[in-house]
Design a protein that fits this description.
The complex is a heterodimer of chains A (216) and B (317).
Chain A lengths: L1 H5 L1 H34 L3 H15 L3 H11 L9 H27 L2 H9 L4 H31 L11 H12 L2 H30 L6
Chain B lengths: L4 H13 L5 H7 L13 H9 L14 H8 L2 E5 L2 E2 L3 E3 L6 E2 L1 H14 L7 E5 L5 H6 L5 E2 L7 H4 L2 E10 L1 E6 L15 E5 L4 H8 L4 E5 L2 H9 L5 E5 H10 L3 E4 L6 E8 L3 H16 L2 H8 L22
Helix pairs in contact in B: 3-12
Classes of the chains: A mainly alpha (216), B alpha/beta (317).
Family (chain A): Belongs to the binding-protein-dependent transport system permease family. HisMQ subfamily.
Protein name (chain A): Amino acid ABC transporter permease
Keywords (chain A): Amino-acid transport, Cell membrane, Membrane, Transmembrane, Transmembrane helix, Transport
Chain lengths: 216, 317
């Protein structure tokens, strides 16, 4: 444990980078994914196609592949982001595909009759989404979104492979110095566990709030 | 990895269609035929060196010993990598792993079992994160993996050797005149492999450098080529190998560390370490070690094979 206590600041610095990646990646994914979900349920066919292609491409590719493409592929076509930015963009773009499907799934749980009722009352597409469909849909999305959050937390460790000095990367560096792989990875694993558990707990609290105590 | 315009267009197309998995292959090959990998060029000579290396007398392998287990099994289980240029690299076409470390393992397997075929060594992939554990729980018999002998590691595993002395060196682009020694790395972006002791060398000798850790040699080369990194710091022989295939790179200065490589063995079996050290003494004496060096590392380092390092000469061995 000496290696952990002696290098606590270094590890916590890595934790901070992991949290930054997680927050940027997840918030970015929420925004982009919601827009994509709206595309996918919109009455305009080309938008639906864009949403479908995005989801099927990004969802079915390993995150590590995406990271390597953005970090080492894009500079060859003249676009170079910093390593951290690249990783955050990848996390957001990747998770957005899953958010999109979670949001779309939530929307589809609202009976089509409610959308028809909204339309017959003269609501536009945007108004019926905003006032009629999304509020009840959101309740069913909470748990899938928690799963995606956890995926982002754990997926952020892949950024270590492309040079981002986050928690896993720093754990590897400390192991080089100390040859204490088991202890170090137990500690970093426990940290990921705690972040994911906190995310799950926050999701549970949010679910109880939006469902008015009806969640089981 | 000189990339033509056509390749760039093709990358664009690949990104657009996200046929992503082929990219690594393209990146390695470019539009020119792939360069010959040093250390793999002449595998027939390499095979002869292993076949010509010594075989242990039956008396040297007492029943029930570490070596006897390997002999009974008929193969050495080696911990290592198949992605280390010059030291242990798998040829995707033949599936054969060759290089200085791979050759050392093959010679030890030959010494114990008398066999030289590909089955005499079974490679178990190890990383820096797993090497000590896999030795301790006897998943592998021995680790040959550019394994620098350090005192913290020597508390977990025994090191035979050192069998190779390397140094950490600096590679930059040819047009870079700002970096001439390790002292010039302060404030610069410096790439290195995440699982190398170069990370520690940088902490010690260039604490002001902004260190970027990548998973493998190819990623570090790409980072240097694309300007993400100003310098790439790693084992001199590996950098020489990179510079020999990438004319836009040059090495600067002399190596600024000494890296003694050892063979990782179980700590609780002193006889195993003695056995491997005896074998090292034999291949040092009969010239097999020098021939292997010449056929692998010697393809990128000029001059004759150096004098082998003295066994037990570093703390931890």
């Amino acid at each position: 444990m000496r290696v952990v206590t002696d290098n606590l600041g270094f590890l916590l610095g890595g934790l901070l980078v992991t949290l930054e990646l997680t927050v940027l990646g997840f918030v970015g994914a929420l925004l982009l994914g919601t827009v994509l979900a709206v595309f996918r349920v919109s009455p305009i066919a080309p938008l639906r196609w864009v949403g479908a292609v995005y989801v099927e491409v990004l969802r079915n590719m390993p995150l590590l592949t995406l990271l390597i493409l953005v970090v080492f592929g894009l500079p060859d076509v003249g676009i170079t982001f910093s390593l951290f930015t690249s990783a955050a963009v990848c996390m957001a773009a990747f998770a957005a595909a899953f958010v999109c499907e979670a949001v779309r799934g939530g929307i589809n749980t609202v009976p089509v009759g409610q959308a028809e009722a909204a339309r017959s009352l003269g609501f536009t597409f945007t108004q019926s989404l905003r006032y009629v469909i999304l509020p009840p849909a959101f309740r069913t999305m909470v748990q899938p979104l928690v799963n995606i959050f956890i995926g982002v937390v754990l997926g952020s460790s892949l950024a270590s492979a492309v040079g981002v000095s986050e928690l896993t990367n720093r754990t590897q560096v400390l192991n080089l110095q100390s040859a204490e792989a088991v202890v170090l990875f137990l500690v970093s694993g426990a940290i990921y566990l705690v972040i994911a558990l906190l995310g799950g707990a926050a999701g549970g609290a949010l679910e109880r709030r939006v469902s008015g105590g009806r969640a089981r | 990895m000189v990339r033509s315009q056509r390749w760039r267009v093709r990358v664009g197309a690949i990104l657009a269609t996200t046929a992503a998995l082929v990219l690594t292959g393209c990146a390695d090959q470019g539009s020119a035929p792939p360069p010959k990998v040093p250390g793999q060029a002449d595998t027939s000579g390499y095979d002869q060196i292993i076949a010509g290396s010594p075989v242990a007398d039956a008396a040297a392998i007492p029943a029930g010993s570490w070596a006897d287990t390997i002999k009974q099994r008929g193969k050495l289980i080696r911990g290592g990598t198949d992605q280390g240029a010059l030291f242990s690299l798998k040829d995707p076409a033949t599936g054969k792993v060759t290089g200085f470390d791979a050759g050392m393992a093959a010679m030890l397997a030959h010494y114990i079992t008398g066999k030289t075929d590909a089955d005499a060594v079974e490679l178990v992939a190890t990383t820096v994160d797993t090497r000590e554990t896999l030795i301790q729980n006897k998943t592998v018999d021995a680790v040959f993996a550019t394994y620098t002998i350090t005192e913290p590691r020597a508390q977990k595993v025994a090191f035979a050797g050192p069998y190779y002395e390397s140094g950490t060196s600096i590679m930059v682009k040819k047009d870079n005149t700002a970096i001439n020694s390790v002292n010039d790395l302060a404030g610069k972006n410096v790439a290195t492999e995440a699982n190398s002791t170069a990370v520690l060398a940088l902490q010690q000798f260039a604490p002001q450098a902004n260190v970027l850790l990548f998973q493998d040699d190819a990623s570090c080369v790409a980072a240097l080529q694309q300007g993400r990194a100003d310098a790439y710091v790693l084992d001199e022989a590996i950098l020489l190998s990179d510079a020999s295939t990438n004319p836009v790179f040059k090495l600067v200065g002399q190596p600024f560390t000494k890296e003694p490589y050892g063979i990782g063995l179980p700590l609780d079996d002193p006889a195993a370490k003695q056995f491997v050290n005896d074998w090292l003494q034999k291949i040092y004496a009969d010239g097999s070690w020098a021939k292997l060096w010449k056929a692998t590392v010697g393809t990128v380092v000029s001059g004759d094979a150096p004098t082998p390092p003295t066994l037990g000469s570093v703390a931890g061995s």
